[in-house]
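dumping this here so i dont lose it
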């Protein structure tokens, strides 16, 4: 598949929210995976605005402790918060400037091995959903083409979420956004249980949960609870 075909398929995926059982967790996971595949970035994370003073980020598939610390702090300070607040792209290029503006974020970003951080707003007119954070380990900043594509992906994801809100009623999607944040622990526990039970990595365990949920038209949190409470063991892959 060419890069152009991959990009076209990704935009179709981000627009495909008109389904009866729209799964916010799966949608956000696919968003971050496609960013890593299409852009010159090491990791990507979506931050959601929710009632309260800070952003929230459902964890990526298999975050390292260092990455998780960066994401936790990025909910409070850093480019993701500023991009959400200003509705503009924010890039931490100058290390000294980053330390001055976001000391805790800059310190943990450096400790985790990331050299660059760029955040893009997820906003459409009056609807402000959050931001997309892109982390890199290289020295070059994102190219203008990659930056434009990243913003287009963030815009498409924003439209997809708002579209789902309209179709399924506003309170339904808001409730799922809240559930996505609250059920992260359950999914992480299920990943660990399945990884030990099937002797696979956490990443493979998550993909097994996701495939099972899609095949049986279930939500990820339902499958995760079934793994923990009822001993469900979805088929797992044997290699990365």
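and the seq i came up w/
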């Amino acid at each position: 598949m060419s890069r152009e075909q991959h990009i076209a398929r990704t935009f179709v995926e981000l627009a495909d929210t008109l389904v009866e059982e729209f799964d916010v967790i799966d949608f956000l996971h696919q968003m971050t995976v496609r960013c890593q595949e299409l852009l010159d970035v090491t990791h990507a994370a979506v931050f959601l605005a929710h009632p309260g003073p800070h952003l929230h980020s459902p964890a990526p598939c298999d975050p390292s402790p260092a990455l998780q610390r960066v994401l936790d702090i990025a909910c409070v300070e850093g480019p993701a918060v500023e991009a959400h607040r200003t509705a503009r792209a924010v890039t931490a290029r100058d290390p000294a400037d980053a330390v001055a503006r976001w000391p805790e974020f800059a310190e943990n970003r450096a400790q985790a091995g990331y050299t660059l951080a760029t955040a893009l707003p997820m906003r459409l007119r009056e609807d402000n959903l959050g931001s997309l954070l892109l982390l890199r380990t290289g020295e070059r900043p994102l190219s203008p083409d990659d930056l434009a594509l990243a913003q287009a992906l963030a815009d498409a994801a924003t439209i997809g979420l708002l579209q789902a809100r309209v179709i399924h009623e506003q309170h339904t999607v808001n409730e799922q956004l809240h559930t996505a944040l609250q059920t992260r622990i359950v999914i992480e526990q299920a990943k660990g249980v399945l990884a030990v039970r099937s002797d696979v990595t956490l990443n493979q365990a998550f993909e097994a949960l996701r495939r099972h949920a899609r095949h049986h038209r279930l939500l990820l949190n339902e499958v995760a609870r079934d793994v923990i409470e009822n001993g469900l063991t979805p088929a797992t892959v044997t290699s990365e």
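Residues 144-168 form the longest helix (25 residues).
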